[in-house]
Amino acid sequence: MNFFPFKKKKEIPDSNTTFTEEELQGFSESTFILSPYENACLDAFQRDHRHPEVNKGAIGGHISVDFTMTSIGCIPSVRCSICGKEQSIADYSKF
Ligand SMILES: [Zn+2]
């Protein structure tokens, strides 16, 4: 599946930067990876925020994982859209 159907160079708004189609293809391979510790924290958060009393539809999706880019690294945090709780799951031992 091609997520970047651009045929020509794509200009980034408010920038003089342009990318070729090949360079944009590289973005589709960018991923954010959770460490085993961060994955365990995410699993625990999901267990604590099942909210069986609330109908979340067929596919759920009330737990979000955000990645905040900082000068010391990428900080993952989780958020529950039902109760609004948010917490960092960062593995600070990797900094
Ligand atoms: Zn919750």
Give the helix/strand layout.
Elements: E1 10-11, E2 18-19, H1 21-28, H2 36-48, E3 63-70, E4 73-80, E5 86-88
Antiparallel strand pairs: 1-2, 3-4, 4-5
Report on the architecture of this protein.
Helices cover 22% and strands 24% of the residues. The chain has 95 residues and is of the alpha+beta class. Strands 3-4-5 form a three-stranded antiparallel sheet, covered by helices on one side. A two-stranded antiparallel sheet has the order 1-2. Residues 49, 51, 80, 82-83, 85 line the site of zinc ion.
Index terms:
24% strand; binds zinc ion; alpha+beta; 95 residues; 5 strands; three-stranded antiparallel sheet; two-stranded antiparallel ribbon; single chain
Summarize the structure.
This protein is an alpha+beta fold and 95 residues long. Helices cover 22% and strands 24% of the residues. The chain is extended.
C-alpha geometry: extended
Distinct small-molecule ligands in the complex: zinc ion
Helix content: 10-25%
Radius of gyration: 18 Å
The proportion of residues in beta strands is 15-25%
Q: How many strands, what sense, and barrel or not for the largest sheet?
A: 3 strands, antiparallel
Instruction: Give the strand line-up of the largest sheet.
Output: 3-4-5
Low-confidence stretches: none
SSE sequence, one letter per element:
EEHHEEE
Let me know the average pLDDT: 83
Helical run tally: 2
Count of extended strands: 5
SS content category: alpha+beta
Kindly, what is the distance between the CA atoms of the first and last residues, rounded to a whole number of angstroms? Answer: 35 Å
